[in-house]
Write a structure and sequence with these properties.
With 193 residues, this protein is an alpha/beta fold. It is 52% helix and 13% strand. The protein has eight helices and six strands; from the N terminus they run E-H-E-H-H-H-E-H-E-H-H-E-H-E. The chain has a six-stranded mixed β-sheet, with helices on both faces. Helix 4 runs parallel beside helix 5. The longest helix is centred in the C-terminal third of the chain and has 19 residues. It is globular. The two termini are 29 Å apart.
Length: 193
């Protein structure tokens, strides 16, 4: 069963998608794909440098195409997306069709503690990164919640605890049991239609 399990992680930059995703894929025995790493390989440069030279709109075009391509690959997979992957409606649709979507939710303050020294995040290379994180969170949180099947609060638990919580959530979803809620995780609202 797990060899065919597919889930995608969405959330703010620095919410732990790559770290949690890598361990989750290992536990599930499926491949791990970090969309940002795939993008950098495809672009032949860092995302930050591409943003500086080509702009965000061009980057989002390539990101959407690569996401669609990765989603077509067969077999089990844990997919870690970039923080802005949910900005386009077509990407949100691709993710929901791909498999279980998990929103790793963290407050802007928690994220700032994790990323304040990271110079590779293009949207945070501004004079007031905390203010920028709050703006990004306000704009993106509703989109993450719209896209996700489950919301996982990443505030205090360790990575291994988060992975365990996600495993329990996925097992409950696969068995059709429970109400879809685990400790520290809550079911995201499903959009109408």
């Amino acid at each position: 069963m797990q060899q065919h399990l597919r889930c995608a992680l969405v959330g703010m930059p620095g919410s732990g998608k790559s770290t949690v995703g890598r361990q989750l894929a290992h536990r599930l025995g499926v491949s791990f794909v970090d969309l940002d790493h795939e993008l950098e390989r495809h672009l032949g440069t860092s995302i930050r440098r591409f943003f500086e030279t080509e702009g965000e709109a061009r980057f989002r075009d390539i990101e959407a195409q690569l996401l669609a391509d990765v989603a077509q690959q067969p077999g089990g997979m844990v997919l870690s997306t970039g923080g802005g992957a949910v900005l386009r409606p077509e990407n949100r649709e691709v993710l929901r069709r791909f498999g279980n979507v998990l929103y790793l939710s963290a407050s802007p303050e928690e994220i700032y503690k994790r990323v304040r020294r990271d110079r590779n995040r293009p949207l945070l290379q501004v004079s007031n990164p905390m203010e920028k994180l709050r703006e990004l969170y306000a704009a993106r949180d509703p989109l993450y919640r719209e896209t996700a099947h489950y919301v996982i609060e990443t505030g205090r638990p360790s990575v291994s605890t988060l992975v365990h919580m996600i495993m329990m959530q996925l097992e409950m979803a696969a068995s059709g049991g429970g109400d879809g809620i685990t400790a520290g995780a809550q079911a995201a609202a499903t959009p109408p239609g």
